[in-house]
């Protein structure tokens, strides 16, 4: 009898969820999961890093002389991105937003939300946007899982890393474009990437 009741309860939960009777909390409304560890269908590979799926993550730890990217197939103007990532202390990575040329990603043609603990100029290292905004709080995060919350609304760019605001700036160079996950060196892993148009 207990098994039957448990199955009925589970079935009712599914029915209510599918019919919209159970709504997600406001903090979760509108988010689109582009990467959940199972496929890379929402991205195009640019460059020759060895991006591969492994244990619910996409990992790269070897590339050529140039950086490599996973570029979103869609373009976005105003949005929030949540990305969970892990890098080693030698990694050079980042999330490039509003890219103007999805075949040639660079900090000159997009906003680079940096992940680079050992950048020679640390003011634009992890948490900063090179050529636009130095990080407000120097952060080193090699060897740990971290979360970027990136908001781009009009000219306002706000970066929050592990709950700490590292950039709050206005810039009008780039209004819309795809975003890209970068591999430039070391070990880089992403396990969840979501976007919410705003």
Query: What is the alpha-carbon Rg in Å?
Result: 19 Å
Structural class by helix and strand composition: mainly beta
Could you describe the largest sheet, including whether it forms a barrel? 8 strands, antiparallel
Average residue-wise pLDDT: 91
**What does the overall shape look like?**
globular
Number of helices: 1
Poorly predicted ranges:
1-19
| Count of individual beta strands | 13
Hey, roughly how much beta strand do the residues contain? Answer: 35-45%
Q: Percent of residues in helical segments?
A: under 10%
CA distance, first residue to last residue:
48 Å
**Can you write the helix and strand succession as a string?**
HEEEEEEEEEEEEE
Describe this structure in words.
This protein has 198 residues and is mainly β. Helix content is 9%, strand content 40%. It contains one helix and 13 strands; from the N terminus they run H-E-E-E-E-E-E-E-E-E-E-E-E-E. The strands form two sheets. Strands 1, 3, 4, 6, 9, 10, 11 and 13 form an eight-stranded antiparallel β-sheet that branches. A hairpin with a 2-residue loop joins strand 10 (156-161) and strand 11. It is globular, with a radius of gyration of 19 Å. Mean pLDDT is 91; it is low at 1-19.
Summarize this, please?
The protein is built from 1 helix and 13 strands. The chain has about 200 residues and is mainly beta.
Write the layout of secondary structure elements.
Elements: H1 2-18, E1 32-35, E2 43-46, E3 52-54, E4 57-60, E5 68-72, E6 79-87, E7 92-97, E8 111-115, E9 144-153, E10 156-161, E11 164-170, E12 180-185, E13 188-197
């Amino acid at each position: 009898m207990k098994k039957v009741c448990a199955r009925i309860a589970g079935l009712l939960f599914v029915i209510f969820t599918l019919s919209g009777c159970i709504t997600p909390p406001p903090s979760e409304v509108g988010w689109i999961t582009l990467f959940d560890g199972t496929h890379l269908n929402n991205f195009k590979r640019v460059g020759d890093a060895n991006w591969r799926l492994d244990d619910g993550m996409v990992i790269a730890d070897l590339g050529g002389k140039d950086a490599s990217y996973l570029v979103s197939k869609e373009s976005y103007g105003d949005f929030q991105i949540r990305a969970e990532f892990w890098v080693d202390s030698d990694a050079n990575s980042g999330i490039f937003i509003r890219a103007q040329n999805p075949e040639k990603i660079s900090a000159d043609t997009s906003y680079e939300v940096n992940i680079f603990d050992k950048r020679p100029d640390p003011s634009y290292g992890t948490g900063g946007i090179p050529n636009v905004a130095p990080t407000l709080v120097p952060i080193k995060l090699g060897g740990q899982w971290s979360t970027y919350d990136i908001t781009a609304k009009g000219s306002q760019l706000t970066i929050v890393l592990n709950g700490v605001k590292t950039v709050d700036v206005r810039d009008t160079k780039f209004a819309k474009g795809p975003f890209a996950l970068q591999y430039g060196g070391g070990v880089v892993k992403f396990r969840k990437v979501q976007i919410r148009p705003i």
